[in-house]
Amino acid sequence: MKLFVAKNSGFCKGVKSAVETAMNIDPVNTFLLGELIHNELINDAVRARGIVTVESVSDVPDGATLIIRSHGAGRKVFGECERRNIRVVDCTCPFVKRTQDIIDGLNGTGKTLVVAGESPHPEVVGLLGWFEGETVVINDPDDQRISALSEKNLAIVSQTTFSEEKFNKIIKNIAKVCKKTVEVFKTICYTTKERQREAERLSSVCDAMLVIGGLNSSNTNKLYDICKRNCGHVFRYADSGEFEAEKIKKFKNVGLVLGASTPDTQTQEVLFKMDSIDTEVKATTMNEMDEVVAQMDNGQSKLKRGQLVTAIISSASDEGVAVLLPFFKKEILLEKSEIECEEYKKEDFAAKVGDEIELMVVSTNPVKLSQKIIAQIKEEEGKMQAISDGEEFSVVCTGFNKGGLVSSMGTYSVFVPAKEIRMGYVKELDKYVGKKLRLKALEIKKSDRKKEIIASQRVILEEEKNARDAAKAEKEAEFFANIHVDDVVEGKVERVTNFGAFVSVNGFDCLAHISDLSWSGVKNVTDVLEIGKKYDFIILKVDEENKKVSIGYKQLQPQPWDLVAEKYATGDTVHGKVVRIVPFGAFVEIENGVDGLVHVSQISHEWLENPTSVLTIGEEVDAKILVLDPANKKMTLSIKALLPEPEVTKVRPRREDGGREERSDRPRNRKPRAASRDREEDDFREWTEGEVGGASIAEMLQNKNDN
Known about the structure:
It contains 16 helices and 34 strands. The chain is an alpha/beta fold. Among the domains are: 96-188, 4-hydroxy-3-methylbut-2-enyl diphosphate reductase, catalytic domain (Cobalt-precorrin-4 Transmethylase, domain 1); 303-370, CATH 2.40.50.140; 383-462, CATH 2.40.50.140; 484-556, CATH 2.40.50.140; 568-644 and 675-706, CATH 2.40.50.140. The longest helix is centred in the middle third of the chain and has 24 residues, at 458-481.
């Protein structure tokens, strides 16, 4: 007897790290969220250290320590731990953590998340806890819910221990029905893939298989399913302690695979037990197994994938039809799903025992035959003719090389050169893996050795762009033929900038500059216009050569100064806000778009060197209208006119010598007149030029001297 041990057996790195952490951490006031791994022996050892297992973070006291199991947990768990000051020791497998990060990055994209996995599994529960949108968990490639995903934008990930074969089938079936984008992330742990491939290889050539791992272990269950599919004698044990060597002593070649949560030491225990029945039993390397495979060759080497063979029906069962090939020593099961018939009935094919049937070789290791695929190939060739004639087709990109993207369509391989992916240079080809491509054939190659479609997505994109450009040009020509300056049009505000708003008028973008939105001026476009709403605008300028149209909004609104004469009159008292201060006075806003000037001499009865000594921007004041000139949009105001007159200073009596007595309350030193007054006078004269009743500083000073 020979025992073949899979190379990748026992603890994976993630499990090993989690176990070492749990076995070395201080157990005082320490809790574990769920089972650390799917291995009862290890979980018992963790509990024996005094670490308490809980099912919810709500069971953990504030300030305690919580170990996150290797399968991970959702975002809410970490949030509650932070809120309650619970110390987190995260033992999440690095591959699981990577999947969580991918899912987290999909939030806000509007995509539906598809997780290939088992919904009750703690890893899947944890993954779903990182997504805020719609989710679907698919475990079966034939799940009826797949058809309901046709109108959704999808992102697909998998449980890290999921079957690679099932994952690929799920992707394929989704791609068949989905009409929108499908983004695929390959999240199966690479060690899981290797374990599954080794199990596939071992179980195909061994007489019996031993599968050891926790009964709740997803990856171990996948290994068991693979072995069961290829080998008629598969023995499953939770741990090596359950193994009974007597059950396998009759077999010549036995394979052993261990789940990722199974300690490597269990291999030695199996060897020890087997040694009791056969002293020559030893673990054989995978390389040594190649020699055994050669010796066990039963004809597979004579077969080639895609080969047509003639077989003889030998029996029929509920699973399908057993057939014999001339160069094979044993029967091969033709599964009922691969038989071309409306409904498989065992009794119908039992009557055909001895008849010949034409089949195609689908795979050689293990051998798999199909009748249905022959009909599919004939259908495929008809489709190839349509594709050759220019019909568009779609595939999901499965990989890439330095030259471009690769995929498949039926029995044909598909290659898209890098320059044919899109219009422009493509740097990162890997980003297209898992994405749906829309293609047209450039060339179809077919020979006995290879069937290949060389295709382009760029030609489709160029055709669509040319069509869009032509439609746009036609629409623009029609637009400019029917638009004129001073036309009043309805437009929808599409987007805004700091300099204006872009408004769609009959599908054409026109610019409403911020200066053309309000007579009073605005700082923000959104103070006047709201994105998504429709307004009336007037056409201000049409530049057909440069495809630019300027429109105005304020021009359709009444100007504030047009109504001033109706609202106000000279001598009225008005209330306003100081909006600007200059050396010669202050401007007061009476209403939006209507400002009046209060000259420095009209602010106070007292002498002011600068208006800022008594007024501030934003201050609200009352003033009297001295001059009103709506035609020139000017208004002169006075604040001091509304202030009480100061007390008149008494005249000092003359001294007997003819002089005047000195006033004790008069300052000894008079403040020199500011040199800037000449400049102020010029500014004020310029502002008041042509006003009726206006007075310059010079005139006021002259009147004072005359008095």
